[in-house]
């Protein structure tokens, strides 16, 4: 068991710097960007990965063909994870009511594979919305995908148990399976919905 | 005796006061079936003239209860255990989503929305009992303001 916070280098600071430059006077019609987060200047392809679910392996292919919202957490998390998943449930409901585009899929990835097997993770995700996908972590692939999404996680000892430290961002993946936007806390359903309608409504 | 406690809690209409300390808006968030922990939230006001400290929260409905605070730094969240929470004279402390919260471990019997549990707030020698309703989702008042969606 790793006891220290695993720090992942955040490429996203560099990405944010590039964003300012890309907004030059010559850009005729810049693609829509998020106001509740940071849209990458260029969508970033994800590496290959394979993570277990109750319906078999979840891979990069499962993040293509539709827009996806990805959140990393763990089921023994009483505050931040339910806050975020209830918020994402509202986002999907409001997007559905306001847009004729297909709803983004919501993917919950557990960073606590020791306690969250695929069945537990799926049941947890389904509690918030029947359509949410629950994905269980697994060391190598989990490290690869979380690093690619600029997400950090780690474990801290607490008495004879441990608690999980994790990024509380929500990642928007485009239908080509590329990282598009990082939504950063505080996360508000209305702001994220407005961004999604702006981004998904224009880009196909 | 147990009936009396429930009656007292019902009469208090989910607000309980002792010697100037008032606990209100206490609620417990319904847990997903697979989760072994769930959160509790409330507001504690100290209307007295001396500082007080909340040292523990107890309940027969849970295996144990801890006070925690969600700390958000650089978009990363972690939980910090609080051994005691001081409330100055004339001040209120809010336990709310994304901040301080009760960490309720292993409900003796699963609590569904509409159920309630008695929580005992311990301020040194003083013990304040309150009935906390179980809700699904966000704070009850917020749920109401979002009706119509």
For the secondary structure, the number of strands of chain A is 11
Largest interface: A-B, 30 and 28 residues
Query: Which structural class matches the secondary elements of chain A?
Result: alpha+beta
Radius of gyration of chain B: 15 Å
Oligomer designation: heterodimer
> Count of helices of chain A?
5
Question: Can you describe this structure?
Answer:
The complex is a heterodimer of chains A (204) and B (149). By secondary structure, chain A is α+β, with helices and mostly antiparallel strands. Chain A contains five helices and eleven strands. Chain A has a six-stranded mixed sheet. In chain A, strands 1-8-9 form a three-stranded antiparallel sheet, with no helix packed on it. In chain A, strands 3-4 form a two-stranded antiparallel ribbon. In chain A, strand 8 and strand 9 form a beta hairpin. In chain B, 11% of the residues lie in helices and 54% in strands. Strand 9 of chain A pairs antiparallel with strand 7 of chain B.
Keywords:
heterodimer, A: 204 residues, alpha+beta, 6-stranded mixed β-sheet, 3-stranded antiparallel β-sheet, 5 helices, 32% helix, globular, B: 149 residues, mainly beta, 10-stranded mixed β-sheet, two-stranded antiparallel sheet, 2 helices, 12 strands, 11% helix
């Amino acid at each position: 068991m790793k006891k220290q916070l695993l720090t992942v280098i955040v490429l996203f600071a560099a990405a944010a710097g590039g964003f300012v430059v890309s907004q030059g006077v010559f850009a005729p019609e810049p693609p829509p960007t998020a106001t509740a987060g940071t849209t990458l200047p260029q969508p970033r392809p994800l590496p290959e990965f394979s993570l277990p679910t109750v319906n078999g392996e979840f891979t990069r292919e499962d993040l293509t063909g539709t827009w996806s919202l990805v959140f990393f957490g763990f089921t023994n998390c009483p505050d931040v994870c339910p806050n975020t998943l209830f918020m994402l449930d509202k986002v999907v409901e409001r997007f559905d009511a306001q847009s004729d585009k297909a709803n983004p899929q919501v993917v919950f990835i557990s960073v606590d594979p020791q306690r969250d097997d695929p069945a537990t993770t799926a049941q947890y995700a389904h509690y918030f919305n029947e359509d949410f996908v629950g994905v269980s972590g697994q060391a190598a692939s989990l490290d690869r995908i979380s690093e690619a999404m600029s997400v950090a996680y780690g474990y801290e000892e607490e008495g004879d148990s441990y608690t999980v430290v994790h990024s509380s961002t929500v990642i928007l993946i485009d239908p080509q399976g590329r990282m598009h936007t990082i939504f950063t806390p505080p996360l508000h359903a209305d702001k994220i919905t407005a961004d999604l309608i702006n981004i998904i409504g224009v880009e196909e | 005796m147990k009936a009396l406690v429930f009656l007292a809690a019902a009469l208090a209409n989910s607000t309980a006061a002792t010697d100037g300390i008032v606990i209100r808006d206490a609620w417990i968030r319904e847990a997903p079936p697979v989760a072994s922990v769930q959160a509790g939230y409330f507001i504690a006001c100290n209307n007295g003239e001396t500082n007080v400290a909340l040292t523990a929260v107890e309940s027969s409905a849970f295996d144990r209860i801890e006070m925690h605070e969600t700390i958000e730094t650089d978009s990363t969240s972690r939980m910090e255990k609080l051994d005691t929470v001081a409330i100055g004279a004339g001040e209120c402390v809010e336990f709310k989503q994304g901040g301080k919260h009760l960490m309720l471990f292993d409900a003796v019997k699963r609590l569904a929305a509409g159920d309630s549990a008695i929580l005992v707030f311990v301020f040194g020698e003083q013990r304040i009992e309150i009935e906390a309703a179980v809700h699904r989702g966000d704070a009850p008042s917020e749920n109401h303001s979002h009706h119509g969606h």
